[in-house]
Amino acid sequence: MTEQDKALTADTQESTAAGASAQLSTIAAIGRHEGETVTLRGWLYNLRESGKLLFPIFRDGSGTIQGIVPKAAVRPEVFEAIKGLTQESSVIVRGKVRADKRAPGGFELDVEDIEVQQRVAEDAPFPISLKEHGVDFLMENRHLWIRTPRQSAILRIRAEIIKAARDFLDEQGFTLTDPPILTPAACEGTSTLFPVEYFGDEAFLTQSGQLYIESTALALGKVYSFGPTFRAEKSKTRRHLTEFWMVEPEMAYAGLDELMELAENFISFIVDRVLTRRHADLVLTGRDVTKLATIKAPFPRLRYDEAVRMLNEAHARGELEQPFEYGNDFGSPDETWLSAQFDRPVMVHRYPAAVKAFYMQPDPEDPRYALCVDVLAPEGYGEVIGGSERIASYDLLKQRIEEHNLPLDAFQWYLDLRRYGSVQHAGFGMGIERAVAWICGLDHVRETIPFARTLNRMYP
Question: Which residues is 65 bridged to in the sheet?
């Protein structure tokens, strides 16, 4: 038995089974038990001492709460056990819930008893202290950094965004269908794929579930997928991860107009849900929630040509350093400036078809343009949704696959969708991490996922 195990056994034996007769609660639900004695199971986040008063702050994953421990109000062994606690020691604590408007959550805990599950050793303290740390240090210790209140709040908001996205689509009659992660070919070109060996053949980690859920949309009408996707582009920007999560709805018998309406209602629903259910967490992250309160459909819509004109007029006025070259995708400064002109996301549609993916339907009124849309989040957060109407014609799709030098054999099944009952259909993808970064007001997507995978990081 190790020394730590011996200490844990001794702690448990010395405990008084705190909370055996008290109602179990979480910190998030503590307000339901005002005036009652409850049991919390969690960890010590911080401890302050003032003479014969101790002020432990406990966390349990749902929030934090301050405890009050007067020396005269508890047994000596309880006072000494709390006084000797170190950061991140795991505890079961019992106490009476008391309302206090000065407290961050509106409540404090008058501690009565405690059971120490494991006391962190003083000679090997928890490395994420309350002082400032550098980004590299924090990312090396990401497995511990996520315990801090702000990081925990971000992950709770992420979970709420995911739940809201699924709830919206489920309530709108979409069926969840799961595409494969291993694929035989690219859906958006081969330059950003992660190859893997698959029983002697080459396969790739998916860039998107889109092509596969086009097939399930033609089976079920309205579908969506939610899962991990991978991009091997060597980007170091604050918006890029090599592994991220996408929610992708797809609709049969739908075009670009229906898609844009779906996108703006989808985003509006998610933001409203987070504001309603995770307001305190948003405040904890430092988010200015007043900027989220304006996110309501309908969103402004700009044709690509109109957006280009606005950018070049801004350059002429000296608001942008560089003129915009027609035919390019928008860069970060362009998206930042465009989105700053509106108090809600802006939808830029009908990009030049020559620079877009092979599967996008050309505009029948002018085939130089694709029936596609990017939704740019305000405050400089860039694209959060990208989508399009898909090509419905077998001949045109085959032509586009050949023009993009993609392996025709790998797309025979995709062409089959145009052989057998092809219809107008459309869909989009929303990257969860970019949505989290925008809604939380974060500077970098590395904080939006429990364990970020970036160009130079795959640890922990």
Answer: 58
Please give the DSSP secondary-structure letter assigned to residue 410.
G
User: What pLDDT score does 415 carry?
Assistant: 98
DSSP string covering 204-228: EE-S-SHHHHHHHHHHHSEEEEEEE
Question: Is residue 274 a contact partner of residue 282, using CB atoms and an 8 Å limit?
Answer: yes
**CB 94 within 8 Å of CB 22:** yes
Q: How many CB atoms lie within 10 A of CB 351?
A: 24
Report the alpha-carbon distance of residue 78 to residue 306 in Å, rounded: 69
Tokens of 435: 């949505």
Q: Is residue 267 classed exposed, middle or buried when 0-12, 13-18 and 19+ CB atoms within 10 A define those classes? A: buried
pTM here? Answer: 0.93
Residue/partner pairs of 408-413 with CB below 8 Å, 24 or more apart: 410/184, 410/185, 411/185, 413/215
Give me the DSSP letters along 50-74: ETTEEEEEEE-SS-EEEEEEEGGGS
CB atoms within 10 A of CB 217: 28
Contact residues for 445 (Cβ-Cβ < 8 A; gap 6+): 238, 239, 240, 241, 244, 433, 434, 436, 437, 452
pLDDT at 22: 86
Rounded to an integer, what distance in angstroms lies between the CA atom of residue 235 and that of residue 243?
12
Contacts of residue 101, Cβ cutoff 8 Å, sequence gap at least 6: none
Sign of CA dihedral 29, 30, 35, 41: positive
- Tell which phi-psi region holds residue 295, choosing left (phi > 0), alpha (psi between -120 and 50) or beta: beta
Phi/psi of residue 223, nearest 5 degrees: -140, 170
pLDDT (tens digit per residue) in 397-427: 999 999 998 889 989 999 999 999 999 999 9
Q: Cα separation of 278 and 175, whole Å?
A: 26
Cβ-based neighbours of 51, under 8 Å, separated by 6 or more? none
3 state SS of 108 = strand
CB 16 within 8 A of CB 91: no
Reduced to 3 states, what is the DSSP secondary structure of residue 85? coil
Strand 37-50 relative to strand 53-59, pairing: antiparallel
Phi-psi map region of 418: left, alpha, beta (phi>0 left; psi -120 to 50 alpha): alpha
Contact 220, 395 (CB under 8 A): no
Residue 156 in contact with residue 148, Cβ under 8 Å?
A: no
Cα separation, 234 vs 366, in Å, equals: 34
